Amino acid sequence: MNQPLLVVDEVSKSFGDVKALHNVSLTIKEGDIIGLVGSNGAGKTTLLRLLSGVYRPTSGLVSLSDGSDIATVRHAVGVVPENTGLYSRLTAWENIRYHARMQGVDDSEAWRRTLYFSKFLGMEDSLQRHTKGFSRGMRQKTALLRALAHAPKVLLLDEPTAGLDVTSARTVRELVKQLGEEGGTVIYSTHQLTEAERVCNRIIIIHNGEVRADGTPQELLEITGAPHLEEAYVTLTGDAARQRHEDDKPLKGLSKWWRSIFTPKLPAEVLEDE
After folding, report:
1. Closest CA to 77 of 48, 114, 115
2. Fewest CB atoms less than 10 Å from the CB: which of 142, 187, 206, 258?
3. Where are the beta strands (DSSP E) in the chain?
4. DSSP secondary structure code for residue 2 in this structure
5. Is 4-249 a domain of CATH 3.30.420.10?
């Protein structure tokens, strides 16, 4: 039986009056390939940032199974954010090496792991190229290599195939499958149910900041009595989705002036024949 690896214990996260997550409890085990599924604004990215130690919970605790607060052991986690955040003036390998050194990993070890995974991703001939001219798919693959270079216990992927072409998206999915077969643990955020079903052995549905379901694809079908996952998802998230929270801090100075000039005004009336 797979051992517990990461524990989310009654975690809530608020941003002012906005409750992004409410009383979330999860146990993530070694070898889990988890599809974190939800609409935009459901709380997926907030949860991933809590799991990586970037955010601190408003209440509750995110920890490794030994009780260590995740914020103190961030080296245990590899992260591929929605925005890859690569340094364009560095080569792919320099980006990876810089991150690995920050995690205390020797260059030779980082290179060994990078070369192993880059062959799978078809990136071995591009490691010495500067990332400025990379396509979105190549940037995403570089970010994956960067996240894997320090041998993390858990890999967090935030919409890893969004905007990728069919071939690149398939390559990313195949890598996730391979990691699972090798005993790796991956949390795979997506709003594509078919993708989650294809890649993951466990699906967590999050809606309006709450976990609505957690189980294998087959278990979700049995819980809802639905013939397929899309119908199960609709059944579990029947209430209206909240609006995605954006930064609503008041603008000041030049920013306020600039927006006042270039933000178009809505017309007072719109006639039916317009």
Report:
1. 48
2. 258
3. 4-15, 18-29, 33-37, 59-64, 77-80, 154-158, 186-190, 202-207, 210-215
4. P
5. no
What is the DSSP annotation of 99-163? HHHHTT--HHHHHHHHHHHHHHHT-TTTTTSBGGG--HHHHHHHHHHHHHTT--SEEEEESTTTT
Which of 42, 24, 47 minimizes the C-alpha distance to 208?
42
Q: How far is CA 165 from CA 56, 160, 168, 186, in A?
A: 35, 12, 5, 22
User: In the chain, helix, strand, coil percent, each to 5?
Assistant: 40, 25, 40
From first CA to last CA, the distance across the chain in angstroms is 64
User: Domain spans of the chain?
Assistant: 4-249
Residues whose CB falls within 8 Å of the CB of residue 248, separated by 6 or more in sequence, listed in order: none
pLDDT digits (tens, 9 = 90+) for 20-59: 999 999 999 999 999 999 988 889 999 999 999 999 999 9
| pTM of the shown model | 0.84
AA identity, residue 135:
S
